[in-house]
Amino acid sequence: MTIGDPVVSAAKQATSTIPIVMAGSGDPVGRGFVASLARPGGNITGISNLAVALTGKWLELSKEVVPRISGVAILRNASNPTHSLFWTEAQTAAQVLALTVYSAEVRGPGEFEQAFASMAQERVGAVVVLADPMLGSHRARLAELSAKHRLASISRSARRPRVGV
């Protein structure tokens, strides 16, 4: 059982005979994990989050929440290969919505402050936080930074941070 594209990729490289069940892959066909969603073939099966297709909707919602918005930042983990798919989709959707999108790539929590300072400098009105284990584990801090910089924000996870074990 695997969760996330990096783990699916590692499992695929490790074996072509042991069954692999994946969960949460952003684009299993595009990443070459399966032949198609209907007929995956090979030794990998499972579910896709298909969230890439929602990127345009997130930008549209940003524009509805902040009608005079002209720019939206996409906060993404530079180490997550699926995030490049979201970025490509965001650029396409932004053209239709007459928005400018800014890529805010981070490699770890030590880069959050600078990323948000750059967003403020670019005068974006909202930030879309892409789903990612590293970003998700710091969602409370990202929400604080969004509020501090007065940015509307969209995130895939509404879970509250857990305290304790």
What does this molecule look like?
The chain is an alpha/beta fold. The chain has two domains: 2-49, no CATH class; 52-155, Rossmann fold, CATH 3.40.50. Helix content is 37%, strand content 21%. It is built from six helices and seven strands. It has a four-stranded parallel sheet, with helices on both faces. Strand 4, helix 3 and strand 5 (100-106) form a beta-alpha-beta unit. The longest helix has 15 residues, at 83-97. The protein is elongated, with a radius of gyration of 17 Å.
Helicity range of the residues? 25-40%
CATH class of the largest domain: Alpha Beta
Classify the secondary structure makeup into a structural class.
Answer: alpha/beta
What is the CATH architecture annotation of the largest domain? Answer: 3-Layer(aba) Sandwich
Order of helices and strands: EHEEHEHEHEHHE
Globally, the shape reads elongated
How large, in whole angstroms, is the Cα Rg? 17 Å
CATH superfamily of the largest domain: Response regulator
**CATH fold-level assignment of the largest domain:** Rossmann fold
Tell how many strands the DSSP assignment holds. 7
Strand ordering within the main sheet = 5-4-6-7
Q: Indicate how many domains the architecture comprises.
A: 2
State the separation between the terminal residues, measured CA to CA.
23 Å
Enumerate how many helices there are, as a single number.
Answer: 6
State which percent range the strand residues make up. Answer: 15-25%
Overall mean pLDDT stands at 88
Largest sheet: 4 strands, parallel
Parts with pLDDT < 50 across at least 5 consecutive residues: 160-165
